[in-house]
Amino acid sequence: MKLTPRDLRLLNLLANYGMLSTKQIEKFVFRSIATTTVLRRLRVLERANLLKRITGLESHELLWMLTAEGGRTARITVPKSKWSKNMLEHDHKLVGLRIALEVSGISHSWTPEHEIRSFIFKKHGLKGMKNRIVPDAFMGIEVNGFKHSVAIELELTLKNKTKIRKTLSRYMEKGKFHALWYVAPKKSILDSVWRQWLALGGPQSGIIFYASLLPEVIESPLKVRLMGTKPHRIIGDTWTQNSVLKTAQEVSRQNETESKKQIEITMDYHAPFLQETG
After folding, report:
1. Is 31 left (phi over 0), alpha (psi -120 to 50) or beta?
2. 200 forms bridges with which residues in the sheet?
3. SS3 of 55, please?
4. What is the 8-class DSSP label of residue 270?
5. Which residues fall within 8 angstroms of residue 119, CB to CB, at 6 or more apart?
6. Is the peptide bond before 272 cis (omega within 30 degrees of 0)?
7. Considering just the CA atoms, what is the radius of gyration of the chain in Å?
8. In angstroms, rounded to a whole number, what is the distance separating the alpha carbons of residues 5 and 74?
9. Does this model's pTM top 0.70?
10. Model confidence pLDDT, tens digit, residues 166-180
């Protein structure tokens, strides 16, 4: 079938984010077009085996991913071919979090969990995967002209204290990054993690601990409070905004450009961080 420029933009976005909901596709690719028309085109691409639908969200909304054939047709790499049903809600919300941070210009680069695991495996092998702490994502930010990395943990449910303490302890032992940022839909989850961080002596670890509410980050990232060590900070006043990135399409193009730049390894136990070359 003949692909339109809009189809190619969609395939590239799916290669970048892994999965997108119908609403996200409608917003960033088929803007001002009726939902029925959007779904009709998605089904055409699905019948051509370029896209695959994913079901299982609590909202019953459809998710879409790129197929191997879609990647070959558009000459792009398919980042992830399988999604766990148990993690689908989490992964979908993580994509929404990423988009909000990238469109706002706060995130200057983003390395998802599967890329971090791949990097560790290639560098250290299967045995080296043991005892390695892998966050949901690493985000590149800028503070006062300096580039830093932030480990992001998205928690949708309240875990038991033992599991929280184990995770935080491993961050404190292995962490070589600027900040650890917990994002959750409820304050009770963040309070629980914060109490364990204090009990373990987290403030003395040299890692900055932040906590924020997911709905607030999705709605207005620049106005979100970075709770934790007081006084609380506001993202827009703390992390430098990259004014170049305005839409998901521009973010996709920017990420494609950054992927060709030199990758400087700034963390022995973690992910590659994209460093500007000069």
Report:
1. beta
2. none
3. coil
4. S
5. 111, 271, 272
6. no
7. 19
8. 11
9. yes
10. 999 989 887 678 999
Q: 137 - beta bridge partners?
A: 112, 152
pLDDT digits (tens, 9 = 90+) for 80-94: 878 889 999 999 999
**Strand partners of residue 139:** 110, 150
Percent residues over pLDDT 70 in the chain: 82
The string over 127-155, giving b where at least 16 C-beta atoms fall within 10 Å of a residue's C-beta and e elsewhere, is: eeeeeebbbbbbbbbeeeeebbbbbbbbb
Strands 137-143 and 146-154: antiparallel
Q: State the pLDDT at residue 176.
A: 75
Task: State the amino acid at position 117 in one-letter form.
Answer: R
* Closest C-alpha to 83, from 29, 31, 21: 21
The dihedral sign for the CA sequence 39, 43, 46, 50: negative
- Could you state, in order of their start, the residue ranges of all structural domains in the chain? 5-83, 90-274
Q: Which two tokens stand for residue 258?
A: 């950054």
d(CA 7, CA 14): 11
Return the bridge partners of 12, or none: none
User: Please, which residues bridge with residue 212 across strands?
Assistant: 183
Cα–Cα distance measured from residue 197 to residue 107, given in angstroms and rounded to the nearest whole number: 25
Q: Is the distance from CB of 42 to CB of 48 less than 8 angstroms?
A: no
CATH number of 5-83: 1.10.10.10
Dump the DSSP string for 99-148: HHHHHTT--SEEEEHHHHHHHHHHHHHHHHTTT----SEEEEEEETTEEE
Amino acid in the structure at residue 156: L
Residue with tokens 């983003």: 110
Partners of 51 in the β-ladder: 66
Are 16 and 78 contacting, i.e. CB atoms less than 8 angstroms apart?
A: no
Six-digit token string for 7:
């189809």
